[in-house]
Amino acid sequence: MPEGDAIRRLASTLNELFVGGTVSASSPQGRFSASAKQLDGKLIQCVRVHGKHMFIGFVSPEVPDAWPQDWMHIHLGLYGWWRFNGDETVVDEGYGVAHRVAPVPKGEWDGHSETRWGEGYGQAEAGSWEPPAPVGQVRFRMFNDHAVADLVGPNRCELIDDEERQVAEAKLGPDPLEDGARDDKESAKRFASVAHSKKRNIGEIVMDQSIIAGVGNIYRADALFLAGISPYRKGANISEKRLKDLWVLICDLMNRGLAAGRLETMDPDEAPNPPIEGDEEASRWYVYHRTGRPCLRCGTPIREALMQNRRLFWCPSCQR
User: Fold this and answer.
1) Phi, psi dihedral angles at 139 (to 5 degrees)
2) Catalytic residue among 52, 116, 139, 165
3) What Enzyme Commission number does this protein have (predicted)?
4) Does residue 307 form part of some domain?
């Protein structure tokens, strides 16, 4: 499932391609047809992100500066993704991340499974480009004169009003990628206070989107490793000070991944040099996806288990 930084990269792409202009909207699959019809011809005013949730705001082109009352609420879940295509201008002007990542062979994954691009992306001359036919089960399609975005397989795709958007965002915990979140004492206090009140495993708590929004499997694994906290330690048994430090660490890791343009947590100064043959993950992550391989700090084999049906990775020696 894409984590918070990936959703923000997608939002950046959508923002650069579509915000400030009108779009043609449809639902080739048919499951979103009524809502797409309401959005057809409207102007995209903004794209908001809170954790793993995206909210695209639509307004009438006659009142482009009005605050949106129509919002498309999207949560990709485990299987959702966006496919982009467009003419030469979307490459020349440097839009988003869709064209910056080299194509990945089918069946492989490089941390960008939520972003894909169609054949011939950025090659057609401006003025001669037309959106290609939809491929697969496209829930929602929007396009303008230069680009098209197809949404496939989302866990949630719904049209809501502004009051419903506010309710949806209020249900989510603080987002480590919000501007100023790292130094926001109130956000750190909120996370630490709620986490400390729970008699649940901290490995479950940091994946609870109502407590902290945007963290997924990779950031959970490596943040807890760097904090030296066992994923099985109860939140109530971790001091609030240590939990506030964990908040800062998560903010740092997620912002590092956002800046890098790919989901990685490894501090370049700690990355194996030369890289470990047969352990490419060690150049990107500390413990995630490194089951049975030696911990980069103590040499103990990394362990794996299931927690709430999600894979969990940790070092039993470094994490207590």
Assistant:
1) -70, -40
2) 52
3) 4.2.99.18
4) yes
